[in-house]
Amino acid sequence: MAARLYRTATGRELLSQDFSVFAAGNGDEGGTYGVSERFPSLFDLASLELDAGGNRRYRVIALLDDDPMGRVATAGIARSDRRIVEYESIFRLRRVLPLRAGSAKALAEKTKLANSSYGTLECTIEDLLPDSLCDQFIKSAPHSICKPPLKTGSGVHRYWTLQGKQGLLRFVSQQATIEDAEGIINALRALRSYVGLPPDGATP
Asked: Residues 40-66: pLDDT tens digits?
C-alpha cells in the first residue's frame, strides 16, 4: 500500500528488483518466532553468495517489532551469531527510523534520540499509521482492539485482535492517502538505506 502510494506520487519504486520485503513464514510462522528460527540461516546463505569481485551478492536484514518478544528475540539472535549486530543486520521497528548513519553505534544513538519521547512504548507496524485513520476504523469495528491503548508522548500503541489487524489492513488499503502512509514510507526509506540503497527509491 505505502509503496504503491509512493510510486504514484513520485514515480519511484521503494520495493522493486533491488529491494524486497517478505515475512519469515506464513501466518503465525512469519512473526518473531519465524525470524528467530530462520534469519540466522538466511544470513549464512547470503554470506556465501558472492559476485565476481568477491562481494556479497545479497544483503539481508531482519526487522522485528519493538515489543517484549521482539526485544528478547533481537538480543537472542545477536548473541547466537556475533556477525549479526543490532543496527547493522537486525533492527527493531521504531516510530522514527533514521537513515543510515555510518556505524551501528552511530545509528543506535541516532535512533534512540529520535524516539526518546516515546520511552519504552511498544511499536508495531500498525503504530506507524496516524491516529485519525485508526480511530476511524475502530469506530466502525470497535471489537478490533482487545484492551485500552497505551500512550507515551505523542505515541499510541493499540492492542489489535487478529481479525482487527486483518480488517485494518483492508480498510487502510482502500482508504489511506500518501499522508496516512508517511510513517511506513519513511520506514521503507530507512530500511533501503540500511542495505546501502538510495532511500528515495529506484527509477522504474
From this structure: 999 999 988 888 888 888 999 999 999
